[in-house]
Specification:
Oligomer: single chain
Distance between the termini: 43 Å
Order of helices and strands: HHHH
Number of strands: 0
Number of domains: 1
Strand content: under 5%
Amino acid sequence: MFPALFLIVIAVVAANLPWLSERILLVRRPGAAGKRAWWRWLEWLLLYCLVGGLALGLENKLNGEIYPQGWEFYAITLCLFLVFALPGFLYRYEFRHLLDRR
């Protein structure tokens, strides 16, 4: 159970990083215009792939093999990663403006 919980926590943190960080790919500072929305989505997709790779590696280490999955599995995990990203997305585009006004 611990590896599954560890993976879920990593996925939640990774899904929110693009919206909580102002750096491009968590390394480079953006230009004067700031970090664009398409950069955030690209980072989110990259982090989805990285977490998926971590999950495959963990499955291989724990089970000794990687079980084949259909497209449905990847569609569901993509949607789940999208749900995990909701707090960071709402903070960036809804709550941050309200907090700045206050």
